[in-house]
Queue: 2 jobs
Job 1
Amino acid sequence: MLNDKIKRRDFLKKSSVITSGSLLLPSFLRAQSVANRTGRQLVVIQLSGGNDGLSTVIPFIDDELHRARPTLAPGKSDVLRISDEVGLNFSMKGFKELFDNGDVCILNSVGYPKPNRSHFRAMDIWQSGSDANEYWSSGWLGRYLDNECENPDQLTAIEMGNVLSLAMKGKKLKGLPVTNVNQFYSSAKQIKVSSNTHEHEMASFLYKTIGNK
Amino acid sequence: MSNKPIMRCTQLQVQHLLLRAGFGDSCEKVKQYTGSKPAQIFESELKSCATFREVHVDMDFTNPYTNNQMNQVDRQMMAQKGRNAVKELNTLWIKEMVSASSGLREKMAFFWHDHFACRSQNPIFMQGYLDVIRGQALGNFGDLLRAVSKSPAMLQYLNNQQNKKTAPNENFAREVMELFTLGRDQGYTEKDISEAARAFTGWGFRKGVFMERPYFHDDGIKTIMGKSGNFNGDDVLNLLLENKRTAKYIAEKWVRYFVHPSGNTKLEIKVADELYSTNYDIKRGLQIMFMSEVFYAKKNIGVRIKSPIELIVSVQRQLHVQIEDQNSLIFLQRMLGQILFDPPNVSGWPDGKDWVDSATLMFRMNLPKLIFRAALIQSELAGSFDDNDKFKMAGKLKKLRSNIDFDRLSDEFEDLDQLNSYLLQVNSISKTTGNSLIDQIVDITSKPEFQLC
């Protein structure tokens, strides 16, 4: 019994785990650019999931629609008309207002030739911006980061969420997914990183990810 | 007969196998296996998971989805109870992953959970689904495919309850080909999907049990991948299993998951052949993979980023820690981006480099500190008679509660070199520091290299 006690004591003795060690911020958070950022920001909102496009932007004049959806398709008076042929769903009043002010642009009926209807393929094409017969591993926003944001120390794009979307992945630079800003900041404060480079490919990837040059 | 001597595993290779075909293991087990042949180790692991404990959540309420007499408030309460029960099932499974004598069965069940990705708020459905993927984890892939396809959880998730003769729903038929058997764009057409959907019409469930509803079933002639007949759902699954592309697809996925993210064509062919010729015996396929010399090659070691579940479980298995509290376990899964029974969609979780970005990597590197600090505080508390202490610590404990077996740890570890070689599959470029064993463990497990297995 006494022995057990001593062992446990030995563990606790001199342990610095309970107190925090020396703090070093990953370089991209140290960059002053974060604090002094000015200028315009682009906000992209991606609503993932099934949306019934024909009940959102409604081609109410189209006979095909009424043939295909005899009970579902709304009549002329049940839509918020934005042209002689197309109207918005009646519940989109705020959206309509923005549209009338010229603050909204609609790209309707977007798709790709000979769709195989795979949900995942469609998302990949949408987020990468590739042609239907190409498979890309970078996204349209990520390529913007690659081309326009040269300083890898700068935090240039944030995604609210757990997993980074393909759209935010560049070949060199990537956006940063964050779910909880406070938690992110407090983690960052406690990270110690070595400034050496690693020969092992995956390990080197990790060192780069944590913010080392 | 080849005259090449049969390889014997080094410590690193033993760890490699135990991390990939499980969730890592104690130093004691690594020592015991070092110097053995791959076949001996794998057989021994198979043997120790031949029998397994139930992972079962007690549900003291009637199935909330069968009782139509309830009012709105009762219904909401039931739904809440249901969600809590799913959470409990989640953490019970993690605890089993941590404490099972071999991690092999749970690792395979975890792989199948990713392969047959599915979620439901209904604990009874999720329990049934978990029983299938754990029970058949090392059984027959055909049986597994059939059982998952008929589980209410999957039928509900992929809308087959709504798949009726008059209005076929193609969701299940599409995913069963694209994700569960043949693989995307592998030898099937749009027409095959809609024909297969007709065969699956009528498959549904009542009171949490699979049932075929003849009234909704289309019993006309269907033509699927060149074959015609009055096919039902089972016939379609058999057609898919008869197609060797299914064996190839599973083999490719395994090799990418268990051996190297870029795959290995030669090994994939061998594994596919074995799977196909044994009528999809999962054990036999795995044997080919985990007993092959190429699995133990240097280029395949340490090239995989631990998925969040692998990380959470392996830390506990390797270092005799237990995260006790349910909310802590859910919290960690959420922060790291992988929650059991809650995959992002039917194609499962993204793997490899997708697991880490600056934010999650930072959290991963702080995790050992959180776990061990909580364990130390817990242990301090146990020995303290000062109420004031307890009060002070209670706040810190809110987020994470863990226990650690100090005695086992200190018995197992002798020096720093041993600690480094046991915990890291890739040598670190930074020196390990720390005055006490715990400090050293925290230092090593906080290194980026610890994220690799």
Note: The first helix of chain A runs from residue 2 to 12.
Job 2
Amino acid sequence: MGMAPGMNVKPYRISTGQTILLLSMANIGAAQLYIPSLSYEALGRSGWLLPLAAIGVATLGGKVFARLGSQYHGRSYFDYALVIGGKPFGRLAALLLAIAMLAFVPVVTKVFTALVSAELLPKTPPVIISMIILLISAFAAQHGIEALTRLTQIFSLAALPLIMLLMLAPLLLPLEPGYLIPVSLVENMRVSASAAAAASASVASAAAAAAASGSMLSQSWIALAAGLMSFPGFTLMTVLTPFLDKPHHAGKVAFWGTLLPAVLVILSVAYPVMIFGWPAAATYARPFWEVLSVVQLAPAIPIQRLAYFLTITTRFISYITLSVYWFAGAAGLKAVLMPKATPYRRIILSTAPIILATVIFQRYSGGFPEGAALVHIALAVSGLLIPALLLEIALFKRRVQDRRRGRRS
Amino acid sequence: MKRLCLLILIFICVASVFGLMGCWDAREIDRRAFIFAMGIDLEAGGLYRISAIAINGGSQQSSGGGAVAAARGNAVAAASASASLGASASAATTGDTAPKVPVLVAHGRTIAESMEALVSISARIIDLGNLRSIILGETLSRQGVNDVVRAVLADPRTPADVILFQAQGSAEAIIRSEPNGEEHLQAWLDHYRTKSILDTPAQYFVPAWQFRSHLINPGQDAYLGAITLITRPENDASGAGENMSDNDTDTTTSQPQPQPQPTLGGIAVFKGDRLRGFLNEEQTTAFSWMSGKAGGRVVVSSPKAPNQLTTIRVTAMRHELTVSNHKSAAPVLNVKLRVTGAVNSANSLPELASLTAAQVKKQVAATASILQTDFSADLLGFGELARRAAPFDWQPDTWEKQWTKASWNIFVDVSIQTFGRF
């Protein structure tokens, strides 16, 4: 490889730190699908507690893949799922996860396009923006995981300090932590239910009122479920574990790779409540954007266009999210359906028109994204519940094998 | 083949750039008119009337505010907007004399329709990105402003940090006013805002997002800085106090009639989203103190020498607001103020401190009484404090009843420093 003799370099391996960085970026990109106003609706002024629960879910998922990875060293989930579950079930499980990962790409692209279209390029046809996003993401994805980790390192040099500064900027505003009181899920559920009832009371007919109330409550519950999977980056451990130079660190990677994005989301949910108050914060489509829009250095000295820095930074990060999910989905398809010699480029380019079509025909009006919620739930099932089941099967098989060996010996 | 694919990819990326940027959509400053201040009134027929100071970009006559360039009498003539929409728009001038800056006027059945009419009124592109102040008319605010504020702020062209004001009377009259020595109303407001908070209470400048939060969040009522038009003799309005003898001459023959001058000297008090009334300058200063903001002056006289007045500047203020007995029908509202005053010369500072404390307490109590009894408005957010103390029991409706029966417990502690030469 042209390396100087004695250099401690492991080609085609990624370190724990690089993987944490990659997962952080992937999770920050995924967190843009998190709707703070819906978390307020679901948990009221304690909506900022939801990302904390999401850290727990991600850590649990990371642990599952760490255990599986340690049993099937050097192999991806898509390979050992067939071994554990047998051909029909294992293949179905792997295929489901690969499709869920690929389905994540158009969902993120749609939100990405909507934000760029609304804030930066209002007169450009959204299809053009989506095409360019997908072209860049496909170009990055086809080069594989090592190239993506290096790209992440370069991006993070600019993105992370900027994001940290943006997260500190609201401290210039008068914060009222008292608006977060009470920290209670029960109280807020009660308030949410009464808010839904009050909203339904304003609708003319009783049937429409009941439907509106039911819809709001079901949205709250779906948002709650999807919110727990706000940081689905741990599902990437399916393909990252074999590349890790320390595969037993998979759980640690999932935890630390979720912590930074979770802190960012917690702040972006808590700041608007502390500044606008909960009822007012819940009315904004993008509460943290509004907070950044009103930050001032002093009463008469606004910081112009601060919110745009957030948009631009998170757009760069979104490329990482898209590329890494696209790559992971392609790796899954390759393992389950295609010959081993199939290049990633071919899979990625062949899935691109389907993804673009999904982006174009996907309905998204800036409100509650049903598609995103469904993909989150699909990722929870195929990336957490089924792998956990497979782990149980693998452990059971191992125990049976150990018993047999014991009897033989 | 690989290189060809790469070249095609690069070509697509580069070519797509031409589709993104504004080759056909250049934004030149001299093709735009910048709206800096806007007034919203409610007309008798239920139509909203928007009046706005529009500064044409690229003009040679620039002043103070950077891109501010106003051509005298450069009001943009415009035809009525589509009659089918029920909206109309017209350019306007100020009476017989040419105005310093153009004022555009548009009206419509909704705020959104009025704003669209305003945007379409001029041959220039109307730029709302520099909108810094919105003034609400008194008739409008008496009817309720929640929907209006929501509609204005929902428009993405409106900056999020725009400042709201309440007009005493018509907002349009204030928009059309020409402050002495200033190019237009917004320049006058900008200068006020950049003064020290010791000179201008911060309460005069309420950002729209903050006002909206107060409207929506239960437990605190909203307020805005109030602007009123006052007609003073020309030289008096300048504030210099020079050539006072000129006032004795007949101004109708030798001098033009004095223009009404905008004055920022109080706050408008809202209950819910409706305007209830106004606090004058002295009451607003007391309200500022209760909010923990320094500024203003206290004038005291010793009982031994009633004619000898001493003025103390309030240079620092610490406040503490609490609610006790919050579950009872008549809660106690505690206001604890620690005031630091400055005086140029004084012989007996301890006596002056106690006199000042008594005077501050008197002013604060009077203002608190007005807020509670005349306006029933909880501007200081005691309701929110009570909610925090008992979050599971607190109800907005119950607090409304408790608020009117609440008693005040005001404690003022003053320390005086001397800064004068003698």
Note: The domain at 16-392 of chain A is CATH 1.20.1740.10 (Amino acid/polyamine transporter I).
